Amino acid sequence: MGSQEVKLVSFWASPFGKRVEWAMKLKGIEFEYIEEDIFNKSSLLLELNPVHKKVPVLVHAQKPIAESFIILEYIDETWNNQFPLLPHNPYQRALARFWANFGEQKLLDAAWIAMCSSGDEQEKAVNVAKEAVEKIEEEIKGRKLFGGDNIGYLDLALGWISYWIPVWEEVGSMQIIDPLKFPATTTWMTNFLSHPVIKDNLPPRDKMLVYYHSRREALSSRFHGWFKV
């Protein structure tokens, strides 16, 4: 399939868009990348994703698909003869989806708030994030990757942890993933980031730091009183 048939509308710092990009490159899919200005949304994005108005959006054969987890499954089902992502076993597939959603619901939001906040609010967010990492630590123990020897769906779904969280920790002057407390997670992060496809398709860290410092500054007052724990 040629690049004219597959397009990805995304934003350079989006962990959601990056997981889709990783999946397509692992599968060897040719595609056209279209950078979106998420602060001044284009008519193209609003046309392709009128419901959520967010990136990423995959366009295949002129048909748009939104939401990164749904896109990952679509990619895996459509290009199913190369680099399978989801496990073959139905129960293992269900588990992969469960942990993908867990990371999004329990860890990502808390880590984001921890980066953007300070004081008691930040401490609460960090604690919630650490509790989520504790669960992930138990799940990855004894494995090189969630997909076994190869990167799988869950590695892509949780891959943002390996690169975005260290940046957010630096920006927020806090720590969520202590290598001594979470050795299995730390090892997985290293294994994931050392894969050539992942390593060659990461946003520049210095640019990430500048961007997320600006987001912290812009959003710091929004999360006051967010955690009622």
Summarize this, please?
The protein contains ten helices and four strands. The protein has helices at 15-26, 43-48, 68-78, 90-116, 119-140, 153-158, 160-172, 183-194, 196-199, 205-219, and strands at residues 6-10, 32-35, 57-60, 63-66.
Number of contiguous helices = 10
Low-confidence stretches: none
* N to C succession of SSEs: EHEHEEHHHHHHHH
Strand content: 5-15%
Structure notes:
This protein is of the alpha+beta class and 229 residues long. Helix content is 56%, strand content 7%. The protein has a four-stranded mixed β-sheet with strand order 2-1-3-4, covered by helices on one side. A hairpin with a 2-residue loop joins strand 3 and strand 4 (63-66). Helix 4 (90-116) runs antiparallel to helix 5 (119-140), helix 4 packs parallel to helix 7 and helix 7 crosses helix 10. It is globular.
Question: What labels would you give this structure?
Answer:
229 residues; alpha+beta; four-stranded mixed sheet
Sequence-ordered SSE layout with sheet pairings:
Elements: E1 6-10, H1 15-26, E2 32-35, H2 43-48, E3 57-60, E4 63-66, H3 68-78, H4 90-116, H5 119-140, H6 153-158, H7 160-172, H8 183-194, H9 196-199, H10 205-219
Parallel strand pairs: 1-2
Antiparallel strand pairs: 1-3, 3-4
Helix pairs in contact: 1-3, 4-5, 4-7, 5-8, 7-10
